[in-house]
């Protein structure tokens, strides 16, 4: 025990003093989060809208305000001409241009006679199919409602839209859990395999074999150091995304840690496997990247795996990072408990056993030719 | 008092596929001696050493340390020996003192790291990382790190390879100190001067076999022709004429112009005969040096090739 403790202290010292490695393991995922946090996908809705109010009456201002209140719109009130609005849409500066005509004042003027409907003009980019249906629908509904109100027709049928407190998962929250899984994976596969193969290359492990030290003790200390670092890494990531970008964790925080550490153990074993297979530390770095990079893109770090083609989805669910991310998101984003992630935990457990056995079979302490 | 055997090697062989690295060698090493294994690169020195240390398994044969079979008693033996590998780096980001403390923790008891560092003149470097040491300092540290458990037997694999003469002499002193403090030292080297100066006994190894084993003096004396004259002349002469003189064994022209090496029988008659020959031919001897043969000659004698090639 004393030996393990001494080795652990030495390992922690070495890790903390290795500024460069520390930077890559701790700050790199943070940079990712910062970048995605600054993009801030939700800011001001998804459609840029210009409104030109030519009437400037009480009614037109109410109308403008109502448009402004539509959540999906990022509205700017313009004082230009209809033609300029048209040009803004045409050039792609804004996605929608709404012109409230001067004639709208006739609606509230009892003297004026309205023989044909006054038209609100909406310029939009016909290619923008996905958003158009939403925007056109919203405006259409708005106009219908306005018609009914203005004609003072009795409301006979109304939609009782009962909001169900639907929690809106922010993209930063999705990304933060993705980063958590990604950094656990990268630090394991890449960090561990390079560190170990370098120690073997430099005969540091062989030198240990010349002493009565039990290699089991060395490995235990090595893994403990790694787990401590992993907890620090998880904490930094979670606090940064929470305090800087207000990403929430809806589930049990300890369960999030538990699942992340479970994943850590798998990737740690895979790191031993890579170090075992690769002859040099350079080869280890290459092989580790080769394993980690496709997983990063396929297992749903940046986007949900449900966006992948069906066949691909079936395949990627067998990668270790996929169930790890699923479990992390179910707990962290959906606020679910351990019962809801049983399937993922089973997948992860199988991976742990497989990775552990592979590590036992492949890892070598020396470069002996045998 | 009978010599106490510390290490015993019996018919040790090691094969890597087709390659026979060690070919049925046997020898014994006694307490408090400095034992050298001398041979060119690839002779099988390191492999033999690592099998005795328990780092590699023999293909056949047995090795004993303190009378115990190496491969059944690995840990017990490792507590009492110190091993310097041919090339080791130490942990990055730990200073010398910290590294020695970590290694010390592997043993039931250990020496004071600062005392060890002082012994090899590295006390001021206690807080330095290995990366910042010079080649000689690094090697001194590697050697002294084997003493952390106050071992009875120290294995040094090419401790001075790649060092400048000053640093080598420095290490020889350290190794000499080890013997004085009662340790047995086994070292490998391909420097014959090192073996000659340091070692009580030398095993000459070539192509996996031990071709000779004795004290350096006796190995040299066993040569039929233990002397050679190095002469510098102002003119050339047919080598065959001199080599036929009485008492002369062989004449070789050296790389430098006008310098010759004349091997002599031990009665030195060949020297006076050569001088007479040069006088007769009106060749002036500008320089003459008489040398005794060294381990290099022993090596050539036993293997038919030069050590440095």
TrEMBL record, chain A:
Keyword check for Ion transport: no
Keyword terms: Cell membrane, Membrane, Transmembrane, Transmembrane helix, Transport
Subcellular location, record wording: Cell membrane; Membrane
InterPro entries xref list: ABC-2_transporter, ABC2_TM, ABC2_TM_bact-type, ABC_2_transport
Main location: membrane
Membrane-topology annotation of the record: Multi-pass membrane protein
Record-annotated membrane-spanning stretches: 21-39, 174-197, 218-242, 254-278, 290-312, 345-365
GO molecular function: ABC-type transporter activity
Domain spans labelled ABC transmembrane type-2: 136-366
Pfam families tied to this protein: ABC2_membrane_3
Cellular component annotations (GO), alphabetically ordered: ATP-binding cassette (ABC) transporter complex
PANTHER family: DOXORUBICIN RESISTANCE ABC TRANSPORTER PERMEASE PROTEIN DRRC-RELATED, TRANSPORT PERMEASE PROTEIN
Protein family according to the UniProt entry: Belongs to the ABC-2 integral membrane protein family.
Name of the protein in question: Transport permease protein
Organism: candidate division WWE3 bacterium CG06_land_8_20_14_3_00_42_16
Upper taxonomic lineage: Bacteria, Katanobacteria
TrEMBL record, chain B:
Keywords from the named record: ATP-binding, Cell membrane, Membrane, Nucleotide-binding, Translocase, Transport
SMART domains with a match to the protein in the record: AAA
CC per GO annotation: plasma membrane
InterPro entries, per database record: AAA+_ATPase (IPR003593), ABC_transporter-like_ATP-bd (IPR003439), ABC_transporter-like_CS (IPR017871), ABC_transporter_ATP-binding (IPR050763), P-loop_NTPase (IPR027417)
Annotated compartments: Cell membrane
Aminoacyl-tRNA synthetase recorded as keyword: no
ABC transporter domain boundaries: 7-232
CDD domains: ABC_DR_subfamily_A (cd03230)
Family of the protein in this entry: Belongs to the ABC transporter superfamily.
Name used for this protein in its record: ABC transporter
Species in which this protein is naturally found: candidate division WWE3 bacterium CG06_land_8_20_14_3_00_42_16
Taxon lineage: Bacteria, Katanobacteria
């Amino acid at each position: 025990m004393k030996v393990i403790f001494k080795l652990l202290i030495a390992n922690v010292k070495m890790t903390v003093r290795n500024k460069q490695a520390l930077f890559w393991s701790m700050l790199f995922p943070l940079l990712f989060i910062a970048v995605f946090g600054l993009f801030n996908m939700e800011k001001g809705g998804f459609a840029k809208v210009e409104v030109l109010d030519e009437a400037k009456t009480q009614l037109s201002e109410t109308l403008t305000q109502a448009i402004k209140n539509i959540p999906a719109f990022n509205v700017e009130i313009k004082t230009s001409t209809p033609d300029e609005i048209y040009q803004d849409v045409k050039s792609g500066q804004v996605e929608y241009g709404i012109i409230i005509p001067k004639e709208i004042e006739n609606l509230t003027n009892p003297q004026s006679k309205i023989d044909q409907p006054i038209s609100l003009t909406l310029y939009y980019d016909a290619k923008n199919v996905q958003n158009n249906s939403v925007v056109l629908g919203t405006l259409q509904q708005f106009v219908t409602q306005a018609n009914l109100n203005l004609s003072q027709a009795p409301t006979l049928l109304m939609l009782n839209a009962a909001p169900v407190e639907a929690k809106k998962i922010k993209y930063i929250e999705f990304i933060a859990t993705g980063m958590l899984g990604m950094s656990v994976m990268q630090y394991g596969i890449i960090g561990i395999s390079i560190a170990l193969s370098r120690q073997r290359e430099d005969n540091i492990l062989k030198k240990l074999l010349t002493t009565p030290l039990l290699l089991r003790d060395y490995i235990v200390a090595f893994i403990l150091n790694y787990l401590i670092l992993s907890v620090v890494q998880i904490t930094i990531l979670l606090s940064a995304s929470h305090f800087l970008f207000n990403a929430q964790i809806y589930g049990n925080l300890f369960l999030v840690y538990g699942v992340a550490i479970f994943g850590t153990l798998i990737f740690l074993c895979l790191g031993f496997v890579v170090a075992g297979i690769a002859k040099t530390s350079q080869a280890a770095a290459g092989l580790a990247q080769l394993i980690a990079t496709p997983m990063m893109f396929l297992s749903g770090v940046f986007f949900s795996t449900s966006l992948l083609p069906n066949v691909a989805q079936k395949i990627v669910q067998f990668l270790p990072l996929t169930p790890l991310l699923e479990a992390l998101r179910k707990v962290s984003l959906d606020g679910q408990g351990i019962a809801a992630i049983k399937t993922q935990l089973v997948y992860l457990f199988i991976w742990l056993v497989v990775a552990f056995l592979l590590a036992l079979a492949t890892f070598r302490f020396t470069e002996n030719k045998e | 008092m009978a010599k106490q055997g510390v290490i015993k090697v019996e018919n040790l062989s090691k094969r890597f596929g087709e390659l026979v690295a060690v070919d049925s060698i046997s020898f014994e090493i006694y307490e408090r001696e400095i034992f050298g294994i001398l041979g060119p690169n690839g002779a099988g020195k390191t492999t033999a050493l690592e099998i005795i240390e328990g780092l590699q398994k023999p293909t056949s044969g047995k090795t004993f340390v303190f009378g115990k079979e190496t491969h059944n008693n690995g840990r017990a033996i490792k507590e009492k020996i110190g091993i310097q590998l041919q090339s080791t780096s130490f942990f990055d980001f730990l200073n010398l003192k910290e590294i020695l403390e970590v290694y010390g923790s592997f043993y039931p008891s250990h020496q004071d790291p600062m005392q060890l560092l002082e012994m090899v003149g590295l006390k001021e470097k206690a807080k330095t990382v290995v990366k910042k040491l010079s080649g000689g300092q690094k090697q001194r540290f590697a050697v002294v790190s084997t003493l952390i458990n106050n071992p009875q037997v120290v294995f040094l694999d090419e401790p001075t390879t790649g060092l400048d003469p000053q640093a080598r002499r420095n290490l020889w002193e350290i190794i000499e100190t080890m013997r004085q403090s009662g340790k047995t030292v086994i070292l490998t080297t391909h420097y014959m001067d090192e073996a000659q100066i340091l070692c009580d006994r030398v095993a000459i190894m070539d192509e996996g076999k031990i071709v000779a084993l004795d004290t350096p003096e006796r190995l040299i004396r066993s040569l039929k022709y233990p002397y050679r004259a190095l002469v510098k002349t102002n003119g050339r002469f047919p080598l065959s004429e001199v080599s036929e003189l009485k008492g002369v064994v062989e004449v070789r022209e050296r790389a430098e112009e006008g310098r010759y090496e004349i091997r002599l029988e031990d009665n030195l008659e060949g020297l006076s005969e050569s001088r007479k020959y040069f006088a007769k031919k009106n060749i002036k001897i500008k320089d003459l040096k008489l040398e005794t043969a060294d381990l290099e000659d022993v090596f050539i004698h036993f293997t038919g090739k030069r050590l440095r090639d």
